[in-house]
Amino acid sequence: MKKISILFSFLSMAALALFISSCGSKDTVAPTITFDNSNATSTSVEVGGTFTITALMNSDENATLKKLTVTKSSSLGSKTTDFDLSGTSSNKSITDTMPAGVTQVTYTFLVLDSKDKTASSTFTVSLKQSVYKAIDTYNSLQIANQNDNSGQQFLTLTPSLGAVPTYTLAEAKLNAAKIDVCYGSATTSGNFLAAPASAKAKLIYNNLGPDKLDTWTILNNTQFKATTLSYAQFTALSNDSAIINNADGVGMSSEVINLTTNQAIAFVARNKKGIMYIKNPSGSLSTPGSVQIEWKIQQ
After folding, report:
1. Least confident span in 22-26, 89-93, 104-108, 166-170
2. Which of its termini does the chain have fewer beta carbons within 10 Å around, N or C?
3. Distances from the Cα of 117 to the Cαs of 32, 50, 65, in angstroms?
4. In this structure, what DSSP letter does residue 244 have?
5. How far is CA 230 from each of CA 52, 226, 227, 262, 287, rounded to the nearest angstrom?
């Protein structure tokens, strides 16, 4: 009887140990990883655009998150970055600028928990190439200020093929709908370029007889803004990418005053954007002068 009791006790202890062992080594479920954009796993972004993706990670209750590894891959190569994690739930956002020269970028997210279980998910970004407009280039020409009776003071920035783009005051009145800019000289604002509708243009050209601006049928309101483009950058323009970045409507005005030589000026003329480059502005309120202008404009 005593032997039976000892045997029973031994079996009970073994069963208890087995139960404790099985509870302590309970299998854990692998972690999960999803993205914060309605469970999508791809998107499209323009070249040069900024993209953000947030990974949402959770571990089983019997484990904690340990590490996230993000691998960015494209035809330019790959780059891997590790992030330390903690707890049973974590979010990680990745922000990146889309490079030129590739059509697709993939981001592979690999999460590891404290039980060495893993989960991974991949997000794909397709790159959209921006379509820029072609531009027309007009070589350097000269327009005069109000005191130069032998020159033309007005300019159209979108002349017809083969047409002369400069006009005298009388000629400009007859072609008012296509006149975009005039050149003049004043006391307080120096040499300037201005839209026919501007106060600066009216200050000079509304006092000159029967063709003064108040008698025109239409006065276009061209907008201008000085830029920091060099002449080399200006001549290198082959589409309107830099033009639309500079002629963006911010800080633009119907006149640009105190002109200096070697100056690039963005403009919007009758819904077309462009950049002009000016050289050698001269003249004063009482003396003749002129300016050299060349420009590029959207077709």
Report:
1. 22-26
2. N
3. 10, 32, 10
4. H
5. 34, 12, 9, 8, 30
At residue 95, what is the residue type? Answer: T
Structural contact between residues 112 and 67, judged by C-beta atoms closer than 8 angstroms: yes
End-to-end CA distance of the chain: 109
Residues 217-223: what's their mean pLDDT?
A: 97
CA distance 97 to 204: 49
Cβ neighbours for 297, distance < 8 A, ≥ 6 positions apart: 135, 136, 138, 157, 158, 243, 269, 272, 273, 274
Region 43-48 average pLDDT: 80
**What's this model's pTM, rounded to 2 decimal places?**
0.59
- The dihedral sign for the CA sequence 211, 213, 215, 217: positive
DSSP annotation of 214 reads G
CB-CB neighbours of 166 under 10 Å: 19
Instruction: Give the position of tokens 């050299």.
Output: 292
Do residues 31 and 118 make contact, with C-beta atoms less than 8 angstroms apart? yes
Phi and psi (nearest 5°) for 76? -85, -10
Domains in the chain, ordered, with CATH? 32-128 (2.60.40.10), 135-298 (no CATH)
Tokens of 14: 């073994």
Measured between alpha carbons, how far is 170 from 173 in angstroms, rounded to an integer?
A: 5
For range 8-29, the mean pLDDT: 52
Give CA–CA dist 96/47, Å, rounded. Answer: 11
Q: Nearest 5°: phi and psi at 204?
A: -95, -45
Give dist(CA 271, CA 222) in Å, integer.
9
Beta partners for residue 137, in sequence order = 296
